[in-house]
Amino acid sequence: MEDKFRIPQLLLRCALGITFLTPVCDRLGILGKPGTGNIEWGSWENFINYTATLMPIFNRPLVNIMGSIATVAELLIAVFLIIGLKTKYAALGASLVTLTFIVFMTLSVGIQKPINYGVFTASAAGLLLSLMPNYNWSLDNLFKGRKIKE
């Protein structure tokens, strides 16, 4: 049976990976300074300030921890999706992380923000990718069938 998902899953993996990698780079100031171009945050401090608006019930130290956890998770998800390592789990993680964003964003700033930022699309894309039968051009595919000798 022909695998009709070869190219679409690769494109979806890369698009979703970049979707997670770009905000991480933004909040770390890698993409530019605050207020320039399409920079959303431009610094960790600005990112944490925004995160605090999404989580008004948490104190600042806890918001910092939650922002750090989200950043590490997004970075790992991005890298794993792009290289195709543990793709099914990374894609499922992408869906769950974005679903969490949807909930917090909707409760704190309304439904329009997650719609504007494409968070619903990213969540659905992660779920769809997690259900793909095979991940061509991935480390998963390269390692498939190889047995680790003990």
Give an overview in words:
This protein has 150 residues and is mainly alpha-helical. Helix 2 crosses helix 3. The mean pLDDT is 93. It is elongated. The protein contains 7 helices and no strands. The protein has one domain (6-139). It comes from Niastella yeongjuensis. The chain crosses the membrane at residues 62-83, 90-111, 117-137. Keywords: Membrane, Transmembrane, Transmembrane helix. It is found in: Membrane. It holds the Pfam family DoxX.
* Count of runs of 4 or more consecutive helical residues: 7
Oligomer: single chain
Share of residues in helices: 55-70%
What overall form do the CA principal axes indicate? elongated
Q: Span from first to last CA?
A: 34 Å
| Poorly predicted ranges | none
Q: What is the rounded Rg?
A: 17 Å
Number of domains: 1
How would you state the average pLDDT, rounded? 93
Largest sheet entry? none
Beta-strand share of residues: under 5%
Order of helical and strand elements: HHHHHHH
Give the total of beta strands: 0
Classification by helices and strands: mainly alpha
Strands, helices and their partners?
Blueprint: H1 6-27, H2 44-54, H3 60-83, H4 87-109, H5 112-116, H6 119-130, H7 139-143
Helix pairs in contact: 1-3, 1-6, 2-3, 3-4, 4-6
Brief account:
This protein is mostly helical and 150 residues long.
Task: Considering the chains and any ligands shown, give keywords for the structure.
150 residues; mainly alpha; membrane; transmembrane helix; DoxX
